[in-house]
């Protein structure tokens, strides 16, 4: 151990490839997608480095073609979860002692595998499983995931270098120990990068993990496990289980060795898990760390000085990329009366120019929403808006689930700033707009702050610096990621660490040292060189 102070490679963001017609990356990803679409895979549980087939399977289908099967995955019984826990605890004995540079090398290798030989596979799997266009897959499954892996290695060394003062007669050292016990990662469907990062960053810091991916992300979760395996993550360090989330969670949280939850998903589920951990608190050997990044009701506020084209573009890109299924997606907007006519016509024109369909046809900007539950919920809100007197749909409003779960990008305008779709997270391609009187800017900012329980992302668009300052102050607690003159989406690892407060989560900022600090428990070591031999201090002298 420890025979040098090693420098890790300086982390840089992975460049986003264009996938323009004629590029080799476009050909490679389309070929891989076709291959995957026309074959069937069988996804096992991964426990102690072994593939476990339980025989109790469920079919996987692309959201844009839900009658087509691309394979099956195996569901765990309670005994598999018990195995995953005990195997993780056994693996901890070696993994927690592994020198940091060896852990770093594994995850740096994973980053390079994704950047190179696995890039087409992980992107094609994300297009298939989560119905992402190639651009959305590339910025998520390839680039963001690579960035998480590279930057986290750098942040880990930054943390390790944080050391206390020492004196000539006593050397003070801090060891950043992994948590005692095992950790639990519960991940959402919408980002392959988040799915990979939540277990990976805890393992990087020396922890062992039970990972439960979303049922709607299993296909790309399999590629992540293939990458981890090839990169050299040892057996038992990251164990993957699929199946009934309640049974899995009950089993995990009942273990006295449970030491941390790394969750991304909806607010209600996170609060339930927090409550359950609280109820079990007397059973645990340590106080579990709880990190959760959850829902949002993200806003765009335009000031009367804004350029209407800037406002319309922020709305269109912010609300509709990946069908609005980003926690950061703009889903409510506040536009001053004087700009409304120009903003409205550009938004309608842009939305009408979208093509919708399978991600395999790269001219499509919009694809399907994730599953039938989400489709039905969105269709219900859209149909209700058609019926409500205080709401008007100015573009979109159609939906069709005969082949895939297609919801037309929809813009609702309401006269009631507290209309249900101004407050509720719908998680789909729907934005609601409230038009305010130009001179009611201050009141509107107050409204923005008080309308939703969430505080994830938001944007102010203005040419007037006083108005920017006013919004920055008034909306101080309304967003963990606040944008000036931009859309409220598109955070980049290392540049805009991501997370929100209030009901949106614990704001531990994915892709930052702050997040990694939650997965270590420092041990202070003081070593005294000349040990005293007499208890008497000088003041006790005669
Ligand atoms: P979800 O809450 O439905 O599922 C998230 C995970 O929780 C999945 O693995 C799911 O199987 C699991 N789960 C579901 N019910 C459970 C239960 N009773 N007990 C234990 N686990 C359970 O969320 P989703 O639909 O996958 O993702 C969308 C949500 O995630 C949105 O609310 C979005 O805002 C949020 N999100 C937030 C961020 C962020 O950084 N703040 C990022 C991505 C997604």
TrEMBL record:
Domain Aldehyde dehydrogenase: 63-516
Ranges that cross the membrane: none
Keyword Oxidoreductase: yes
Single GO molecular function: L-glutamate gamma-semialdehyde dehydrogenase activity
InterPro entries referenced in this protein's UniProt entry, alphabetically: Ald_DH/histidinol_DH, Ald_DH_C, Ald_DH_CS_CYS, Ald_DH_N, Aldehyde_DH_dom, P5CDH/ALDH4A1, Proline_metab_enzyme
Reaction it catalyzes: L-glutamate 5-semialdehyde + NAD(+) + H2O = L-glutamate + NADH + 2 H(+)
Pathway named in the protein's UniProt entry: Amino-acid degradation; L-proline degradation into L-glutamate; L-glutamate from L-proline: step 2/2
EC assignment: 1.2.1.88
Enzyme class: oxidoreductase
Keyword Oxidoreductase: yes
A Pfam family per the record: Aldedh
Keywords tagged on the record: NAD, Oxidoreductase, Proline metabolism
Family: Belongs to the aldehyde dehydrogenase family.
Protein name from the UniProt record: L-glutamate gamma-semialdehyde dehydrogenase
Species in which this protein is naturally found: Flavivirga jejuensis
UniProt lineage: Bacteria, Pseudomonadati, Bacteroidota, Flavobacteriia, Flavobacteriales
């Amino acid at each position: 151990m420890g025979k040098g102070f090693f420098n890790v490679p300086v982390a840089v963001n992975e460049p986003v490839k264009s996938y323009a017609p004629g590029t080799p990356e476009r050909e490679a990803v389309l070929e891989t997608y076709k291959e995957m679409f026309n074959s069937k895979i069988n996804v096992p549980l991964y426990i102690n480095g072994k593939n476990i087939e339980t025989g109790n399977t469920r079919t996987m289908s692309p959201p844009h073609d839900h009658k087509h099967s691309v394979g099956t995955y195996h569901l765990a019984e309670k005994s598999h979860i018990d195995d995953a826990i005990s195997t993780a605890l056994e693996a901890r004995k070696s993994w927690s002692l592994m020198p940091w540079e060896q852990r770093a090398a594994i995850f740096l290798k994973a980053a390079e595998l994704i950047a190179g030989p696995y890039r087409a596979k992980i992107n094609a799997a994300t297009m298939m499983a989560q119905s992402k266009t190639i651009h959305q897959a590339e910025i998520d499954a390839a680039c963001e995931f690579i960035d998480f892996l590279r930057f986290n290695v750098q942040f880990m060394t930054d943390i390790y270098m944080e050391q206390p003062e020492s004196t000539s007669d006593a050397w003070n050292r801090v060891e950043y120990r992994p948590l005692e016990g095992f950790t639990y990662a519960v991940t959402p469907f919408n980002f392959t990068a988040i799915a990979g990062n939540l277990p990976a960053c805890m393992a990087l810091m020396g922890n062992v993990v039970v990972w439960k991916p979303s049922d709607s992300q299993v296909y790309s979760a399999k590629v992540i496990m293939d990458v981890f395996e090839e990169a050299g993550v040892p057996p038992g360090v990251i164990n993957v289980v699929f199946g009934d989330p309640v049974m899995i969670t009950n089993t995990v949280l009942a273990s006295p060795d449970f030491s941390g939850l790394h969750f991304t998903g909806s607010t209600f589920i996170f609060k339930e898990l927090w409550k359950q951990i609280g109820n079990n608190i007397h059973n645990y050997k340590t106080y579990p760390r709880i990190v959760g990044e959850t829902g949002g009701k993200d806003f765009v506020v335009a000031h009367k000085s804004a350029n209407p084209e800037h406002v319309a573009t922020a709305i269109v890109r912010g609300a509709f990329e990946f069908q609005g299924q980003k926690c950061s997606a703009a889903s409510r907007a506040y536009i001053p009366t004087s700009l409304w006519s120009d903003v409205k016509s550009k938004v309608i024109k842009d939305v009408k120019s979208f093509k919708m369909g399978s991600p395999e046809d790269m001219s499509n900007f919009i694809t399907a929403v994730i599953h039938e539950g989400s489709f039905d919920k969105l269709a219900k809100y859209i149909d209700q808006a058609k019926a409500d007197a205080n709401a008007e749909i100015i573009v979109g409003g159609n939906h069709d689930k005969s082949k895939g779960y297609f919801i037309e990008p929809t813009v609702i305008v309401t006269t009631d700033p507290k209309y249900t779709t101004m407050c509720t997270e719908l998680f789909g391609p729907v934005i609601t707009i409230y038009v305010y009187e130009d001179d009611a800017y201050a009141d509107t900012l107050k409204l923005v702050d008080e309308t939703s329980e969430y505080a994830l992302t938001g944007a102010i668009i203005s040419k007037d610096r006083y108005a920017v300052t006013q919004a920055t102050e008034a909306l101080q607690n309304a967003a963990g990621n606040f944008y000036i003159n931009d859309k409220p989406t598109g955070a980049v690892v290392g540049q805009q660490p991501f997370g929100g407060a209030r009901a949106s989560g614990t704001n531990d900022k994915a892709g930052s040292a702050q997040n990694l600090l939650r997965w270590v428990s420092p041990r202070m070591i003081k070593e005294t060189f000349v040990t005293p031999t007499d208890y008497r201090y000088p003041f006790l002298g005669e």
